[in-house]
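Budget justification aside, the reviewers requested a transparent look at the raw inputs and outputs of the sequence design task funded under Objective 1. We therefore reproduce one unedited record. The lines immediately below are the C-alpha cells for a 292-residue chain.
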C-alpha cells in the first residue's frame, strides 16, 4: 500500500479546496492508498511538513497548490529518496505546465499510480532558497511582489499588476560572473531559468529542461521604450531568440551583482530587493512523478 502525504494550500489559485479534498479522499479509498493530509498555513510550514514526514513516513509527498506550494514541498524533500507529486491548484502552475502534468484533478491524481519518475535539478539561490522553475530580478519580480501583497488572485490580477509595472523603473547595471566569462550589462529583467515557460504560457527559455544538469541565465537588456511591444511580441509568440534585446547563457554557477537592490522572485514567491544573487545548480535532487 503506497503511503501518500498531501500538502494542501487552502488559498492557492483563489479556489476553495473543499471539493478537491473529497476527490482526494475518494481516490485514495478506491485505490487503497494510505494517506494523510495537512493544510499549509501562512508560516511555519517547513516545521509542520518535516514533523508530518517524520511521523507518517510517506513514500510520496503531494504538493496540492501552485508553484509556491511545489517549491515548499520540494525543498523539504531535498536529499531524501521520497517522491514528489503535483496536483496543479495554483494561479499559474508554471512547473506543472512545463512537466506536462494534467490540470484535471483526477488525471493528476492518477500519476500517483502510473507516473514515471523524473529527477529534477534545483537551483540553490543565496544558499537557503531553492528554485525548481523560474526566478527573476526586475520587471516580473515587481509584478509578483505587488500580486502577493494584494488579496487579488488569478490571471486577471497578474495582468493588472503587469500594467502597473510598466510605469516603474526596473533597469539596473548588472555584473554577471559565470565560470567561463564575466560581463556587464544594463538590463530590465534577468531570469534564472530551470524550466522554460511562465505559467501564463510565455516561453522565456526555449532550451530549458528542468533535468538537463544546468540552468539558463536569460538577460533582457535595457530596451528603448518604443521597443517594449516588439520584446513583448517576441516573448508571447515564443520567438525571443530573434529579439536583439534577449540573450541566453547555460551554466551551473552564476554570481550577479546589481548597482542597486532590485526585486527578486523565486518560483512565484517575492523575496524582496537584493543587489547580489549567488546561484548554484544542484543536479537531479527531487524525484518527481510526471506522465509516463
Ligand atoms: N493558510 C494559508 N493562509 C495564507 N497564505 C497561505 C496559506 N498557505 C499558504 N499560503 C501562502 O500561499 C503562497 C503559495 O501559493 P501558491 O504559489 O501555491 O499558489 P498561487 O500563488 O495561487 O499559484 P502560482 O504560484 O502557481 O501562481 C505562499 O506565499 C504561502 O505563504
Amino acid at each position: 500500500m503506497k503511503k501518500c502525504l498531501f500538502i494542501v494550500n487552502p488559498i492557492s489559485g483563489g479556489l476553495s479546496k473543499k471539493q478537491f479534498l473529497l476527490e482526494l479522499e475518494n481516490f485514495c479509498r478506491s485505490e487503497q492508498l494510505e494517506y494523510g493530509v495537512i493544510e499549509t498555513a501562512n508560516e511555519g510550514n517547513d516545521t509542520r511538513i518535516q514533523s508530518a514526514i517524520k511521523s507518517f513516513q510517506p513514500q510520496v509527498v503531494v504538493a496540492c497548490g501552485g508553484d509556491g506550494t511545489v517549491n515548499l514541498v520540494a525543498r523539504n524533500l531535498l536529499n531524501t529518496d521520497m517522491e514528489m507529486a503535483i496536483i496543479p491548484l495554483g494561479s499559474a502552475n508554471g512547473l506543472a505546465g512545463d512537466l506536462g502534468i494534467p490540470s484535471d484533478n483526477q488525471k493528476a491524481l492518477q500519476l500517483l499510480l502510473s507516473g514515471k519518475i523524473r529527477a529534477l535539478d534545483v537551483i540553490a539561490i543565496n544558499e537557503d532558497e531553492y528554485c525548481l522553475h523560474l526566478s527573476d530580478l526586475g520587471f516580473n519580480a515587481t509584478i509578483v511582489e505587488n500580486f502577493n501583497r494584494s488579496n487579488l488572485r488569478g490571471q486577471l490580477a497578474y495582468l493588472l499588476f503587469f500594467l502597473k509595472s510598466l510605469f516603474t523603473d526596473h533597469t539596473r547595471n548588472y555584473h554577471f560572473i559565470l565560470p567561463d566569462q564575466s560581463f556587464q550589462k544594463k538590463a530590465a529583467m534577468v531570469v534564472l531559468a530551470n524550466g522554460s515557460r511562465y505559467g501564463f504560457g510565455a516561453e522565456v527559455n526555449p532550451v530549458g529542461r528542468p533535468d538537463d544538469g544546468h540552468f539558463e541565465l536569460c538577460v533582457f537588456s535595457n530596451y528603448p521604450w518604443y521597443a517594449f511591444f516588439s520584446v513583448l511580441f517576441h516573448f508571447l509568440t515564443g520567438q525571443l531568440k530573434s529579439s536583439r534585446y534577449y540573450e541566453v547563457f547555460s551554466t551551473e554557477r552564476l554570481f550577479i551583482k546589481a548597482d542597486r537592490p532590485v526585486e527578486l522572485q523565486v518560483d512565484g514567491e517575492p523575496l524582496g530587493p537584493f543587489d547580489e544573487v549567488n546561484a548554484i545548480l544542484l543536479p537531479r535532487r527531487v524525484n518527481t512523478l510526471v506522465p509516463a
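The domain at 3-114 is CATH 3.40.50.10330 (Rossmann fold). The CA atoms of residues 196 and 205 lie 4 Å apart. Computational costs for records of this kind are itemized in the attached budget.
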